[in-house]
Amino acid sequence: MTSPRLWSRRVVLLRAPRAPLSLRFDLRSFTVGLACLATAVAVGAWSLTVGEMALPLRDVAAALVGRSDDGVARIVMEWRMPRVLLAALGGWALALSGAVFQTVTRNPLGSPDVIGFNTGAYTGALLGMLLVGGGHLTTVAGALLGGTLTGLAVYVLALRRGLNGYRLVVVGIGISSLLASVNGYLMITVRVEEALPAAVWGAGSLATATWADVVPVLVAVAVLTPVLMLVNRDTQLTALGDDAARSRGVDTDRLRPVLLATGVALTAAVTAVAGPIAFVALVAPQLAVRLTRTPALPLLPTAFLGASLLVLSDLVARTVIAPAQLPVGVVTVTVGGGYLAWLLISQARKS
User: What are phi and psi of 23, to 5 degrees?
Assistant: First the structure.
């Protein structure tokens, strides 16, 4: 995570006239969050009009309020809406997961895809598809099990008289490289007809999204976002360092497992239904902290920014080589790779 910095802030305080209620929020963070949310909604609405059968926005609006014919309603509500919602909720969950991991590790590279969670989920899904056999349920169960066990292994191996963020990143990169070689071995030792669906899933795609895929991600976001907001004050204090946080009453030894479990669950919910989508968790928190100029990672602007990034990436994946479609993971890797190169160069210049 970036080092704490001091910025001049404009804070707005709203008080209820006849009740002991008040709401205090940072004006810049509120504006950035609102702009990101508006972007996600606007791009999502546009995405509903794009496809093999282009629809005007008024027909999409009519389908949303139940006043269109059955054909348009089926296209909008059954085919396109689940994909757009899964992109928005998935981006939200991945961005918050990245904020959690970067806060715990206090390192801008400490996202779940860098420290091995996505690779572990891919390993679990491959083992489920190629060795156990079965369909979608086996893939989901394998991804959840593989990602969770990888996160647990990285956490245990990084423990040494407490958890060090730098060691967690290094151990995660090592585990990720090891599992990547296992994935490569599995892919070259199976038949082509078995390897093809596994490769498509491993690229990260929202093309087959249904309402059944949206539900678990929606539940994860609805349950875990309030958990992160409840511990947000203590989480922000850990950015000052363990000693400073403990001096202000924060139990860092209890807070970190809660944060890591929450981050793993958020990433697992998305990876299980869409495959590993890289770089959203890495990019969104750092872009949010630069846009809001806050000393700690802002939760809601990060979530809204992640949602807008993945909705926009999915729209690009659907349209850039239309009528063919790219997996959304290909677009996020392309954008995220450029960001990662810029981040490494800027960090090297600072050091």
Answer: -135, 125
